[in-house]
Amino acid sequence: MPSVTSPQLHEKASGFFSSSAGVKLKEARQSAGTFVGEVTKDAKDNLTDVAERVGLVVKSRWALLQQPSTRRAVQERLICAAASTGTLLRKGVTETKGKVVVGKTKVEEVAKKTAQRSKTLLTDIERWQKGVASTDVFGVPIEVTVQRQQSSRPIPYVLVKCADYLILSGLNSPDLFKSEGDKKVIQHLVSVYNQDSNALLPEGVNPVDVAALAKCYLASLPEPLTTSELYNEIRGAHSSIHAMRNILKRLPSVNYTTLEFITALLLRVSQKSLLNKMDARSLAMEIAPVIIWQKGGKPEFYRKYWSQPSKGSSKNMDPPLSYSAWDMLAEEGEAIDASSLIPLDDGMTTDFGADGMTIDFDAIEVVVCLIEHHNAIFTDANETVWR
């Protein structure tokens, strides 16, 4: 229902607003203005007070800093901080330098190993391209090896090293120059001396391997130590010391000196035959095929290194194959060139041993003569005398 406002109430409200409301609003406005003024004044007073206090604090601190004792304390703190910072920096730099040095050392080690491997690789490549490398001693003519040494003693260093080692610590070892030795050890020693002809033998190496190394070197020579030219004359002179002496004088100086050196070593070994089981004839049977062989036929006494012959070998078997010095050191299972056979003269005193190797009895007698009559044949003042 719509509300009904009486005329009386309307009149009363109009009277109220016209009389008291206006007065109250005016009073409220005046009160608010007074309050705001007071607040503003208080805020200004507070700001002024705060500014004064801050100024006093700054002045007091500045005055404190101006005092000598305070200034000195601040300076000491700054110096201490600077020193600490410098120490840390130096420590960091030192550690960095240390790491750089370690890194440099490692890099140098890697570079050195890489250079060595590269050198070995280049040496192998050179050998493959030219047959032998410029530093090789195995498979190189003996006069070339001695010339490279630039020594007053015209004997290959590898033989000198082997002989010295055997004289000092190997004469009592059984089967010297007969035993096959350790194939891998011999291969390693061949590689060592091909890179450095003046290398030392490893400490503790087996004397049997050292003797086998000396045989391997002699077998690797492109021409026999006694030369192909004097082959027949030397074989025919074993019964005469005088004839043998005169024929050997015709050898090249390097060959003659080396032959004297080797047979002097064999003589010393034979003098210990009760212990090493190798008398002059036993040694001659092992050394003769290495130093006396005809042109076109390489010594093949190391053939048994790679393949053992059957027990049924006989005199009617085919002539054995010819092997080069590098064929002797080939890995097991590798194919060996069988294109050339050792040519045999009809009149040559030869036979085949139980192991299938060719035996030249005249050559053996020559070596026996050189051992047993060494001092009578090699009468030079510089002949080798073992103590």
TrEMBL record:
GO terms for biological process: signal transduction. It holds the Pfam family RhoGAP. It comes from the Eukaryota. Residues 140-337 form the Rho-GAP domain. InterPro entries: RhoGAP_dom. Transmembrane segments: none annotated. This is Rho-GAP domain-containing protein. It comes from Carya illinoinensis.
